[in-house]
Design a protein that fits this description.
Four copies of one chain form a homotetramer. By secondary structure, the first copy, chain A, is mostly helical. Chains A and B meet through α8 and α9 of A and α8 and α9 of B. The first copy, chain A, binds a DNA duplex through α3.
Amino acid sequence: MKTTQRRLPRRIREQQMIDAAVTAFSRGDYHSVRVEEIAEAAGTSKPTVYHYLGSKEGIFTACVRREGERLIAAIREAVHDPRAAAGDDPLRRGMHAFFTFVTGNRESWTVLYRRAAVQGEPFAAEASRMRDRVMDEVGDLITSCTGGLLGEHDTKDAQLLARIAVSTADAFADWLLDHPEESPDAMAGHVTELTWSHLRSRRTATAL
Amino acid sequence: MKTTQRRLPRRIREQQMIDAAVTAFSRGDYHSVRVEEIAEAAGTSKPTVYHYLGSKEGIFTACVRREGERLIAAIREAVHDPRAAAGDDPLRRGMHAFFTFVTGNRESWTVLYRRAAVQGEPFAAEASRMRDRVMDEVGDLITSCTGGLLGEHDTKDAQLLARIAVSTADAFADWLLDHPEESPDAMAGHVTELTWSHLRSRRTATAL
Amino acid sequence: MKTTQRRLPRRIREQQMIDAAVTAFSRGDYHSVRVEEIAEAAGTSKPTVYHYLGSKEGIFTACVRREGERLIAAIREAVHDPRAAAGDDPLRRGMHAFFTFVTGNRESWTVLYRRAAVQGEPFAAEASRMRDRVMDEVGDLITSCTGGLLGEHDTKDAQLLARIAVSTADAFADWLLDHPEESPDAMAGHVTELTWSHLRSRRTATAL
Amino acid sequence: MKTTQRRLPRRIREQQMIDAAVTAFSRGDYHSVRVEEIAEAAGTSKPTVYHYLGSKEGIFTACVRREGERLIAAIREAVHDPRAAAGDDPLRRGMHAFFTFVTGNRESWTVLYRRAAVQGEPFAAEASRMRDRVMDEVGDLITSCTGGLLGEHDTKDAQLLARIAVSTADAFADWLLDHPEESPDAMAGHVTELTWSHLRSRRTATAL
DNA sequence: CATGAATGAGGCTTCATTCAT
DNA sequence: AATGAATGAAGCCTCATTCAT
């Protein structure tokens, strides 16, 4: 029984396409993905995909944009969550949301983080930009939650810490894949812990 | 005037080809690299490349193998360096060698670490194997240098720490690209520092 | 704000479509024109265009037919113009009308004269037929206005002269594009002049 | 029996390709020609065509260039022919060579003269340039052979006359296709005759 | 050893055309 | 009357790979 409908409104089809594309691009390099496989997975044909998303690069860009925005939104919502307990740590909440996204949306994360690291290919430009925006978001999170802790070079230090946090989260997420017995929540705690620990060690060091 | 010689002995030509290929594969996906461009960069023609390395996959495999072995050898040599001072920390020396390789051989590292992260492509198998061997090497390094510190789950914990160390090193190396004012040596120290710090924090935690 | 009206009577919409199509077909080959662009320029959608004109070939045919008839009608009206002065030369009037059309309706003329010169394409059949009808019209004009001047092979000679007149008019029209300082009227006079001059020279030549 | 050889030197294959392409482009619009048909007609495969000529546009450009140069060379050789009789008219010789080319190389002429008249397509740029060069060549021919006859606006007038001569030759050549009984030589004579007759009529007119 | 010549296979993209509403 | 949705078919171009010299 095919559940995929014929004749869907554009908005829905477009999302299905991006869903399929995220999966495809997470599985292999940009160049190893064939547009046809995306079309089939989305229950349509190549021409429709081109009609909506313009080009293979357009497909990729749409993926990166949608998933990047989702991740950033997830972090922000967690940080500003009005239901959070009063004494709760916003940095912890933000990092938790971040790690939850990274582990719970492997495919999105792979596209965002891994596929951006290619030089000189036009399709990588958007990915690279989005990668930076994500890094900045985490950096801002750290900055805004640790005022004063970092000393003079706040922004720069926060950026480096953000990179470390992100790559650590990535390593943890990878680890989870091979070790399903571990609890993601515990892992999330550790990412936050490590970040805090780095922060504390910065207090004594004049510069990293 | 071409400086590349005609009629070189096989071993030399092969190395030139692999040099060219590492550069090429570091610049973009496996699929975005054309065999012809490798041949040209190596100062030969396509048929010769095929004669020596067999296929595109063979070229890639040769790259991964050579660079992987070089990295592993570099770590081992540093750890067992007979010229090292008596009180010197072997873990520190090993991590330093590792980080030195990662930053000093960007192209090799990119091929080794980034191009391996693709599923379902035959060419990725060797890379994935080599990636694991590198992780294991770092894991062994940690294990052998911290006997007792990690508690019961020594090996497993060491592996996780190795992953974090490697991904952190990768993040630092990236950071260096955007911040040339930082000293690679200082960064190397920090990678080691962070690893140690994680190790210490493990002593108190019941399980990661 | 779209100025094109929705829900127009069929005849009007059809004319708008043909207008748009003539413009489109004058700009490039038959094959370089997309039906969608015609639909858009006509303020409708593709299905409507198909509903009215049947197929791309149908669109092209409609253009050729309409513009061809317009040109022929223009010549005839000029020749038989009841308001023309008594001693006026009908050949001159006809040639003038012809040239006026050619320069004043560049797009129509381009479709009629240039797009017909393709072999083996079904869409060219109608254009070719219309091209011949136009030639014949000019040939008839010459024949009917110069009875006796041409000698025995009247019709054949008139046809050749018609071809020369037409291609000369085309050359003049092209020339006008690059030299806006020239007056179309003067050019029209010259086309007629040249035709007359050829006619006179035929009188003495035994055979062209 | 296939006469086409496998494994030909590049220079030869390239010429065969251009031969095939001229034929193909003369038969229909640029867009109606498929690269594969050119490859087949040249006894090769598409990739080889692309390897040598780069792109469809490159194929077209190569045709226009080669045939244009041939035509221009033919005119020049005829004009400067050292074997020509002393009292012979160079204009007549040049026009004869021109007309001989136009009728004897229908396909080349069609590509040069007809396929250039498309706006806004990149492939037409070279054709347009070559078309102009041919016109200029004929214009120069007229100028250099009629010093003083044209009055003050020599160059401009010569250009207009060149256009008329060319379009007339085109009309004659077309006519010959439908009337094989006519002698090309006689036609060539008429083209020259008409050009001279126009020239003479210019002597009295102050400006065309 | 070395390479110029050649191609099968496959991917991106476009377009005329139809359907269902 | 009108159109948003959808696609089969086809064309341009690239690339890994093989021969024959």
